Amino acid sequence: MKLNQLTIHELKNKLSEKEITPEEILNSYTQRIDQIEDQVKAYITVTEEEARQEIKNNNKKGEISGIPFILKDNISTEGIKTTCASKILNNYQPPFDATVTKKIKENGGLILGKGNLDEFAMGSTTENSAYYPSHNPWNLDHVTGGSSGGPAAAVAADEAAGALGSDTGGSIRQPAAFCGVVGMKPTYGNVSRYGVVAFASSLDQVGPITKDVEDTAILLNILSGHDPLDSTSIDKELPDYTQFLKEDVKDLKIGIPENYFEYDLDEKVKEKVLNCVDKLERAGATVDKIDLIDVEYVLAAYYIIAPAEASSNLARFDGVQYGYRSERADNIKEMYKNTRVEGLGEEVKRRIMLGTYALSSGYYDDYYLKAQKVRTLIKDEFTDTFEDYDVIVTPTTPTTAYEIGADIDLLEMYHSDIFTAPVNIAGIPAISIPCGFDSNNLPIGFQIMGPHFGEGQIIQTAYTLEQILDIKDKRPQL
After folding, report:
1. What is the DSSP string of 36-96?
2. Is it the case that residue 152 has pLDDT exceeding 80?
């Protein structure tokens, strides 16, 4: 097996035994990028020279020393372009690192590049990138999902050992499901958001995308913890997540939201997910059918709250301080208008307009305030449910990956978040792991949700299922 096909923990073991060197690992990944990146288009920026220099200068003996990572291109990297896949930030180089970037570096990890995404993380396919869509390594005619589609594709295609993405309504878990890798959205406040370009501040959360559950536990140990630079970061003692890598679900209580499975699901997705539930039950877990608040209410609340916060957060991109500035202007008002018209994509404009409307005088109470009340009901319902159940499981997505350029109705596209958005609304953690393939050999995702700071029991459940299924080593053939 080639070095670029190994997991983070396998590379760690070989490095500690001095069987390989960081240079050999990096060479394996850069060769892979040279071979297939023109097909996959996972990266916006490749930083091979910076990674090589880091190996020369690196005296750190951290958990991930010498291992290359791709970061979603909305995570700040000092001196390296952070574009958010938008024309308006095409040449922006941050003067600082995000906290999660620092943590990767402090633990010896190498930044191999920045991953493609839907512009400002708004989308479910990575087709909203201002540069190009990323292509699914399992079938290059299909999307990678979004908005962290580039990082997920890079991990699936063995172009990076692991990745960091951001998840606002499913943007780590949905592309992980489409690309057949593991993606985790931690509890809100568990991982610092400092230096991550904001979409919806009360929903955004950084998390890992990896080849298996063990790698997720390793990265979560590195990323988690209080950050005084982030006012929403929780100051709480956290466990060693690798201690939950146990194949054991005896006495685990699993809730299956029956009303979620009544939604318009692809039959193969439903079959594979329920088959996994049966396997967990045979392994010793107790499974009960439950009812949760209708996902349609969740999605309605999400698509008011997220655009409203985006409207506020994206107001800073006006051509004044940094980024693109229109040259077609005779006065400052025209400069503001033309900069945003020319510099922002259609989906970003759509969400800004929706959010501005929801926050406007006369409509705030009817839309935004009401959505926040529904959000409280959703959070309370999850809290109550987790008093009786350890985890809740659902499909990650209603379907497998769409074809690139497919004529899909906008509302149908928004509905692809229907099983992932409740997690962000409630602020709870969740993971997506691959659980099989459809008739077109496209991956299917299995989602496991847990209570606030219940990452440990999620990891244990996911790890157990991963061992039972034994499909994690199946790789796309490019």
Report:
1. HHHHH--EEEE-HHHHHHHHHH-----TTTT-EEEEETTB-BTTB---TT-GGGTT---SS
2. yes
